Amino acid sequence: MSLFSKSLTMSGRRTVAACVRHHSSLTTELIENMDKKATWDRFYTETSSRTATFKNFEWFFGFDAVRDFIMPFLQTKSHPDALLQVLDMGCGTSALGPGIYRHSPAPVQVTCADISPIAVRLMREHVQTQAILPHNLSSKLEFVELDCTQLQRHYRSSVMDLIVDKGTTDALLRSKEGKMKAGLVLKQCLKVLRSSGSLLQFSDEDPDARLLWLETEAQEQGVMAADVGVQEVGELRGVCYYCYQVTPRPVI
After folding, report:
1. Range 213-226 average pLDDT
2. Which of 54, 122, 126, 195 is deepest in the core (most CB within 10 A)?
3. Is the pTM of this model over 0.85?
4. Per residue in 26-50, is it b (16+ CB within 10 Å) or e — as a string?
5. Rounded average pLDDT over 144-168
6. CA distances from 39 to 96, 116, 156, 171 (A)
7. Structure confidence at residue 79 (pLDDT)
8. How far is CA 213 from the centre of its chain?
9. For residue 111, is pLDDT > 70?
10. What are the b/e assignments for 191-212, b being 16+ CB within 10 Å?
């Protein structure tokens, strides 16, 4: 195991343990099998059964913590009459996607996608019982069951303006069998993003490790290329978080 991998795994254990401190029976399974649909089905089934009322479950942090990182990407439309296409990838039961829908002044189509049908059902039921009003009345919000390693089965190339990944890639990279899936997800994102679009990854992984991984995985000679950057989000509960931006670059 490399130093970077060891650092990521240790950081992941601390982060996951903090997130699921009220669900200790799930911690070990989550850490080792976060790339598995069955793991998340069990997680959302158990977390939802512990309370009579719905409560969003946030990995890392909620929408307000990263609002200022996301909103600048929702200013310019590729086509004047079209909605900006936004994908919250691996949404779980987070309020991130609904937060974008609620606060974006530009008209957006926000698709909240997760591999777990349990999470998707919980979110659909929640917005049906507690309607969320959009800032722009033309905006739309939907929740779909989707395996993000297969984005091109659901979307054409170059259709997305923004993809938001809050912890999804981290979950894959920290799983026993998830690293290859993480690379595939990144490549799928680059294929469905417009040339003017961006992927934002929110993570607690150190830039020395994540930037190297992104720069390596996002390049495929003659097929795809990307520019990669990073900003510090800030520290929460003793953990420093980052926003990694990946932007498709024309292949020469």
Report:
1. 87
2. 122
3. yes
4. bbeebbebbbbeebbebbbeebbee
5. 95
6. 21, 9, 29, 11
7. 64
8. 17
9. yes
10. bbbbeebbbbbbbbbebebbbe
- pLDDT tens sequence across 74-106: 986 656 668 999 999 999 999 999 999 999 999
For residue 91, give Cα distances in angstroms to 1, 147, 177: 30, 12, 21
Q: Are the C-beta atoms of 87 and 197 separated by less than 8 Å?
A: no
DSSP H/E element including 112: strand 108-114
More confident residue, 224 or 112: 112
| pLDDT for position 80 | 65
**What distance in Å separates the CA atoms of residue 146 and residue 163, rounded to the nearest whole number?**
14
Residue-level pLDDT at 5: 35
What is residue 13's DSSP assignment?
H
Whether 215 and 224 have beta carbons less than 8 Å apart is answered as no
Tokens 């990521």 found at: 8
pLDDT tens figures, 2-11: 323 333 333 4
C-beta separation of 30 from 39 below 8 A: yes
Question: Nearest to residue 169, comparing CAs of 8, 28, 53?
Answer: 8
Tokens of 60: 């890392």
Q: DSSP string spanning 79-95? A: STTSPEEEEEET-TT-S
